[in-house]
Amino acid sequence: MTATTRLTGLLIAASAAIVTLAAGQTPLLALQRGGAPAAPENAPPPEPTPRLADGHPDLSGVWWTGGDVGGRGYGGGRGRGGRGAGPAPPTFTGLYTPEAAAAAKKLADKDDPTLKCIPTAFGTLNVSMFDVGAVGQIISTPKFVVMLTETFHGFRLIPTDGRPHRAEVPPSYRGDSVGKWEGDVFVVETKNFTDNTWISAEGRVSPHSDQLRLVERYRRPDKNTLEIEATVYDPKVLTAPWTVPKQTLVLAPFEQILPLNCSEL
Description:
25% strand
């Protein structure tokens, strides 16, 4: 784990402690339970999805997995975004071609680009909005959906009118994104990446090529829930597209993310 991600964990844990104190629980009890307490049996039905003036779902809010660092709900493919019984789904690196796998074996934790404050191309917890953290924020406007990442002060400005990618934009760490609505689902395509980042961080060796392309589908079925499905394409290094395990996030009990500086190690 890098110093950056350790600091992210401390910030999230502090937020969780504040929330649990306000709810009359001790932070220790919350940590033992692995996150927020279960809803009572007679809980009211979920509140309806908020909507924008044009009728589309409003994706705005601070989103996380609903659990403290290290507990239930925290971790790629675990908790609310985890899988059920059965064999584990393929990972990005599990789909490497023989040549890509051989190249990846030459890399180690010391080669992790995030140690130099370079973000991931996707996200360590299988949520691109998190990058190497575990919380992110969305701001919806009439023309753009803005996705803010706590780590590295990252952001994506995603136009919502289905326009094509900008041909004049050079490749970047997190690519160029465009979005469109398919009913109540917001579909985001991201491409035009550099090839000097990893898919994940914290020593999870996962290089990719400049042909990386992400297709994400965001759905807000009710006020407190955000569902994300994603597929990762990289024909230069993968034998098949990678279907990312579906992630289900919850609305955080705070209104904005925290600033987090990165110091190169």
